[in-house]
Automatic annotation (TrEMBL):
Methylates the class 1 translation termination release factors RF1/PrfA and RF2/PrfB on the glutamine residue of the universally conserved GGQ motif. PROSITE patterns: N6_MTASE. It comes from the Bacteria. Residues 103-189 form the Methyltransferase small domain. InterPro entries: DNA_methylase_N6_adenine_CS, HemK-like, N5-glutamine_MTase, PrmC_N, RF_methyltr_PrmC, SAM-dependent_MTases_sf, Small_mtfrase_dom. Keywords: Methyltransferase, S-adenosyl-L-methionine, Transferase. It comes from Massilia jejuensis. PANTHER family: HEMK METHYLTRANSFERASE, MTRF1L RELEASE FACTOR GLUTAMINE METHYLTRANSFERASE. Belongs to the protein N5-glutamine methyltransferase family. PrmC subfamily. This is Release factor glutamine methyltransferase. HAMAP family: RF_methyltr_PrmC. Residues 10-71 form the Release factor glutamine methyltransferase N-terminal domain.
Amino acid sequence: MIAAGATVGALQAALPLAPLENRILLCHVLGLTRVGLITNAQRALNSDEAVQLAALVARRQAGEPIAYLVGQREFFGLPFLVNPAVLIPRPDTELIVELSLERLAPRARLLDMGTGSGAIAVAVAHTRPDAVVTALDLSDEALAVARANAAANGARVRFLRSDWFSALDGEGFDLIAANPPYIAAGDVHLAQGDLRFEPSGALTDFADGLAALRTIIDGAPAHLETGGWLLLEHGYDQAAAVRALLAGAGYGEVQSWRDLGGIERVSGGRRG
């Protein structure tokens, strides 16, 4: 029970969550920064704040992700709005942004497939305002979130509602990046942790985990300029399979790159 009159300092020690999560929820409810929590340690919660905090703590104890509770997650140094219509951006995905930025020539055209919150497209467009960035998704709800994130971060991105390549009408790009659904149907992880609350269609292809990756690999050459790169995020154990698919489809310079945890997280190849 969180009572009105409890102080910020006491609550930081008494709340039943991990210390970082306690701080995040307190900052959210009270509109304080982390420094503000220290300087306002003796500030007492009013009744409305106590009720709001108690509700958020209960939802977190039930497993709901912190990012959905506060409606935001940082990615590539930028704030991103998130809600249950989109995946929560994760640090591992910053790798595909870095690889894309390394390969983008001035004023190059980048396509982000299955953009979700817009994390990849917005991060690239914010970092490289000269780039011509297009992002697509099949979900209208996800596109609404992505557009809001582009506007909030001053990123110029064209958004399209599209079932993979269907709305592109023969357009060509210098680089295609994607973080598609790659968890196999029935994988136990889908019933664990944050994944229980995230949109299933953005997590699993409802098949073997490689179906969306195959679709992108097979369809990308028709939209990639000669010498253009295709970069794909995938599961921790899928790198070899994705490399084989890329090589079999005729891509050159096929390789994989490791994330911060040392896991082969992104694989790609170049159109000859």
